[in-house]
Amino acid sequence: MGFVSGQVVQEIGHGDDVDEELREGIVAQTGNALAGEDLDDVADAVLLWFRLDDGDLTDALVDSLTYLEADGELWLCTPKPGRAGFVEAGDVSEAVATAGLSRTKAIGIAADWTGVRLARPKH
Questions:
Q1: pLDDT tens, residue by residue, 17-70
Q2: pLDDT-based confidence at 120, cuts 50/70/90?
Q3: How far is residue 91's CA from residue 42's CA, in Å, rounded to a whole number?
Q4: pTM of this prediction?
Q5: Which of 6, 7, 21, 102 shows its CA 20 to 30 Å from the CA of 33?
Q6: Taking 70 as the threshold, does the pLDDT of residue 123 lie above it?
Q7: Do 79 and 51 meet the contact criterion of CB atoms below 8 Å apart?
Q8: Are 100 and 64 in contact (CB under 8 A)?
Q9: Exposed, middle or buried, 1 (CB in 10 Å: 0-12/13-18/19+)?
């Protein structure tokens, strides 16, 4: 996912179903614990876990930008097809566009999760 030493990564939407191995890998790469939703400083990246039942995806995306650096990366993590909480690709695309973001990369980040890297438009 490209995290580097010293980065502050805020995690939003943590639940019992998230991939703990991925979380531990991010901590190992950055050397920092994942910051929670109560972060009141800037983050270099945001890891947003989102499932179908988590509410409005557009709102979640916009809210996740609150403490993200202007050039920071937002990783939207959704369950893979066939898993509980799967979010249709069309719904993701619509929410991303409505939130004013663009998709830059999509990868399988864990056995049950897909990660989509999102960015703000360059001005």
A1: 999 999 999 999 999 999 999 998 999 999 999 999 999 999 999 999 999 999
A2: confident
A3: 28
A4: 0.95
A5: 102
A6: no
A7: yes
A8: no
A9: middle
104 with 118: CB under 8 angstroms?
A: yes
Q: Which helix (H) or strand (E) holds 91?
A: helix 89-98
Tell me how far apart the alpha carbons of residues 39 and 41 are, in angstroms, rounded to a whole number.
Answer: 6
> With contact defined as beta carbons under 8 Å apart, do 73 and 105 qualify?
no
Residue 64's nearest CA partner among 9, 106, 115, 22 is 9
What contacts 59, CB < 8 A, 6 or more positions away? none
Given a contact cutoff of 8 angstroms between Cβ atoms, the answer to whether 75 and 45 are in contact is: yes
How far apart, in whole angstroms, are the C-alpha atoms of residue 5 and residue 25? 12
Residue with tokens 């993200």: 68
93 phi, psi to nearest 5 deg: -60, -45
Count other C-beta atoms under 10 Å from residue 96's C-beta. Answer: 19
